[in-house]
Design a protein that fits this description.
The termini are far apart. With 127 residues, the protein is mainly alpha-helical. It is elongated and about 50 Å long. The protein contains 5 helices and no strands.
């Protein structure tokens, strides 16, 4: 597990693809668990429609997961040390390809979900 989650060395296409798939599966599972927990904590019966409340909870889930992922990235870079990080080397970016895909994907997913929620709120009445 240490080589999958805390390794930034590129050793070939097959290990890189395995790392991307494992990261996507782990991220999906963690997103689902955070969403489930926040749904139980934040969802209350109110005058708002259930759809709006659940979409808002999903935005909070993405925000919480983004914070957790930033903590993971801090631990990753702290564990590797500043001397071993070569930002000018292409192999470094291939080594952290899984993390980059998740990071960029989270930002894109957040803005897609935010714009769809805004369209629903502006298009219809909240109640």
């Amino acid at each position: 597990m240490d080589t999958i989650f805390f390794d930034t060395n590129y050793s070939g296409i097959q290990p890189a693809l395995i790392r991307v798939v494992v990261f996507l599966l782990a991220s999906t599972l963690l997103l689902w668990l955070v969403y489930l927990g926040l749904t139980k904590l934040l969802f209350r019966k109110s005058l708002q429609r259930k759809e709006l409340s659940l979409r808002l909870v999903f935005l909070w889930t993405l925000f919480v997961y983004f914070i957790l992922f930033n903590v993971y990235l801090y631990i990753l870079f702290y564990k590797k040390g500043a001397d071993s990080l070569e930002f000018s080397n292409v192999r470094f970016y291939l080594g952290i390809m899984a993390q980059l895909i998740i990071y960029i994907g989270l930002i894109i997913l957040f803005f897609i979900k935010k714009s769809s929620l805004t369209k629903i709120i502006n298009g219809k009445s909240i109640n």
